[in-house]
Prior knowledge:
Blueprint: E1 14-15, E2 17-23, E3 26-32, E4 35-37, E5 45-51, H1 55-63, E6 65-70, H2 76-82, E7 98-99, E8 108-109, E9 114-126, E10 129-141, E11 146-147, E12 150-151, H3 153-156, E13 160-162, E14 167-169, H4 183-186
Flavin mononucleotide is lined by residues 16, 28, 30-34, 49-51, 54-56, 80, 83-88, 161.
Amino acid sequence: MRESLGALNALYPSLTVLAGAVVNGRENFITIAHVGILNHGKTPYISVSIAKEHHTTKGIHAHRAFSVNIPGENLVAETDYCGLVSGKTSDKAALFDIFYGETDFAPMIRQCPVCMECRLHSVIDLNSHDVFVGEVVRTHANPDVLTNGKVDITKLRPLLFDMASKKYWSIGQPVADCWSIGKTIKDRT
Ligand SMILES: Cc1cc2nc3c(=O)[nH]c(=O)nc-3n(C[C@H](O)[C@H](O)[C@H](O)COP(=O)(O)O)c2cc1C
C-alpha cells in the first residue's frame, strides 16, 4: 500500500545557496533552494530556478551572468534574511563583503566558503519561473574548507533545505563509498 501525494515535488533535501546578480546597478543576493547540478565535467553547468517577479531575475536577464554562493551553517540567519526580503526594497548586499572574479556582473560573497561565478548559458521559461542555466566560469574556495585541494563538505557544512519541515538541516554521517559499495552486489550476480 502506497499513499498518493499527487503531483508533489519530493526532491528534497536540496542545497541552500545565495545567488548573486547586479540589478539596476546594485548587487543583490537571493536565497535559492531550487538549484541543480546539470553535469560534472570540464565545462560544468548548474541551474537556479527563480520566480519571474523576483528582483534578481531582472539582473540575470540584463547582464547574462550570476553567481552561486554556498553559505555555511554560521550564515543561516543571513541566508534566511535574503529569502525573506526583496532587493526591490532592501539593500541585502550591505550584509556581505563582495568580490568579483573574471565575470562581470557576477558578484560573490566573501563570507561564503565556496563561490561560483557563472555565465548565463540559457533560460528555460516555466511560466512562473525562469530556470537559469549557468556555465561555471570559475569556482573560488576558502582554503579552510578544503582537504587535499577538494571541497570537504564536513568543513563546508552547507545548509540543506527541506520543504516539508520548512527547516534548514545539516549534513550527517557518510553511509558508504560511491562506485564501491555496489560491488558487493555486482560480485555475487
Ligand atoms: C530557504 C528559501 C529558499 C528559497 N528558494 C527559492 C527558489 O529556489 N526560487 C525562488 O524563486 N525563490 C526562492 N525563495 C524566495 C526568495 O529567496 C525570496 O522571495 C527573495 O526575497 C527574493 O529576493 P529578490 O526579490 O531580491 O530577488 C526562497 C526563500 C527561502 C527562505
